[in-house]
Recover the amino acids of this structure.
């Protein structure tokens, strides 16, 4: 998933960001509400984690602005306020979920996975392409009777491809979904990870699933 974290507590922001990146998510971080709204308008996020109390613009105002602009991206609110009225206000403003500080990283990760499932057209989280099966919840990948072990970034790439099964996705689309706005790595990183994925998904099988569409990008499909 591509996720934006907006929280002015820098230590917490950095810890959450690092944890989600280790799970293979693409994460952008901002520390005030004005930057959050700018990133939300410019990016295509799967989920936004919004703190309520932020400088520049508070999280509730950011959320209400999103919904007023018909941005339906899933939003998880973070706050130190634990009263029922505060939670009701957040949910009534358009939040999808609410997490009270302090919280465990495991619970945050679980709630993000739930938001991803709810936003998906595939609530069972199981995608198939030929004899390839990808469970985006348990992160189990099988081809035929073979279990396939992937790194977090390889899994994120495969997840993006299978969610767009039969559709050609460009280098730019893959970069935007697997890396964040600050990515300054090798411009050939997409090619490298496609190569890694092919070795694990296609090598040893007669039918190849990952295809290059010259000048356009990549597509996963049965021939």
């Amino acid at each position: 998933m591509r996720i934006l974290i907006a929280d002015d507590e820098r230590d917490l922001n950095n810890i959450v960001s690092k944890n989600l990146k280790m799970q293979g998510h693409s994460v952008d971080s901002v520390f005030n509400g004005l930057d959050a709204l700018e990133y939300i308008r410019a990016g295509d996020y799967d989920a936004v984690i919004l703190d309520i109390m932020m400088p520049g613009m508070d999280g509730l105002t950011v959320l209400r602005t999103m919904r007023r602009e018909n941005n339906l991206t899933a939003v998880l609110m973070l706050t130190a306020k634990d009263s029922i009225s505060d939670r009701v206000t957040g949910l009534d403003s358009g939040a999808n979920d609410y997490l009270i500080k302090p919280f465990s990283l495991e619970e945050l990760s679980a709630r993000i996975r739930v938001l991803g499932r709810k936003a998906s057209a595939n609530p069972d989280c199981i995608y198939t392409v030929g004899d390839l099966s990808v469970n985006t919840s348990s992160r189990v990948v099988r081809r035929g009777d073979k279990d396939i072990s992937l790194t977090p970034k390889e899994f994120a790439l495969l997840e993006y491809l299978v969610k767009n099964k039969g559709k050609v996705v460009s280098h730019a689309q893959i970069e935007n979904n697997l890396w964040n706005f600050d990515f300054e790595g090798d411009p050939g990183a997409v090619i490298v990870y496609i190569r890694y994925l092919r070795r694990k998904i296609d090598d040893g099988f007669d039918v190849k699933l990952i295809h290059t569409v010259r000048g356009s990008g990549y597509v996963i499909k049965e021939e």
